[in-house]
Amino acid sequence: MQIRGAGKIACAGASALCDFSDRYEGESVECFRDDLDAAVKEILGSRPTAVSLWNGVHACIRDIDSAKGLEEARASVSENAKRFVEMSARAVEAIGRIGSKRIRDGDTIMTHCNSSAALEPIKRAHDQGKELKVYATESRPWRQGILTVNELADAGIDVTLIIDSSVRTVMKKVDKVFVGADTITSNGTLINKIGTSQLAVCADEARVPFHVCSETYKFSPMTMFGDLVTIEERGCEEVARREELRDRVKIFNPVFDSTPAKYIDAIITEVGVISPGSVYDIMVRQLGDGIFKEME
Ligand code: RI2
User: Fold this and answer.
1) Which of 26, 40, 210, 229 has the fewest beta carbons under 10 Å from its own?
2) How far is the centre of ligand 1, averaged over its atoms, from the C-alpha of 32 (Å)?
3) Residue 162 phi/psi, 5° resolution?
4) 71 and 216 share one domain
5) Do both 195 and 281 map to the same domain?
6) Centroid of ligand 1 to alpha carbon of 192 (angstroms)
7) Range of the domain at 29
């Protein structure tokens, strides 16, 4: 939880593998493969929901089996990791450029949690001279909304912090919703910070367009083959102090929720603005036919 945002988490995973390879002191490629495997499992176990971490880590290790010796294996992990981190930064930049065109002068925008991809179009639109207002949810229990409001305030944007339960009330003042993504499934369902689906349902009710800003490496290949997304649950101490509660009280603290495709007007990616129905085709195009053999 020191690193917030599915994209940054993926880059941190890739950078950790880059460090691991650069500092590896073992003597054979076989040992390297085994130790790398253990490192990969540890990294992936840290946050189970965001597929960006899985995709980032697998981008780093994809050439490991064909490497001829230890040095080639180490270099491939290190270079792939650096490529992934650079690609991730370029993707957010492109999402900002593309997404800013969906924002008009005078728009009021609502966002949730803290998403680099969702904030980039807003900051870009502001830089283009568009006058904007932003409502950002607090995003209990970790209150990542505080990061968002400070980031937007530092950029000179008119921003207001709201509590999560005021979303439906405030939606009446809003023209557009921009949120990020932790994972997008093959049928276009969005998995994002708990409370995102509340924004989506309220936006639908108020006829406010709902935009998801997502790098395509947040699309989940596993979901093409029927896998369900694991929703991380975190400890009760994040929600309330034990001494505040009677012994019989239980706490349920899911970190993410699921927003069906029917509530999503557009997904803004680095390859353009797409509908949730296009996610499957984009994954097939990017991963190639080999993915079907790999997943069998
Ligand atoms: P970027 C965050 O969750 C939020 O759910 C946010 O919408 C999403 O990651 C994407 O953020 P967490 O993974 O990658 O920090 O756009 O728990 O920064």
Assistant:
1) 26
2) 32
3) -130, 155
4) no
5) yes
6) 7
7) 6-91
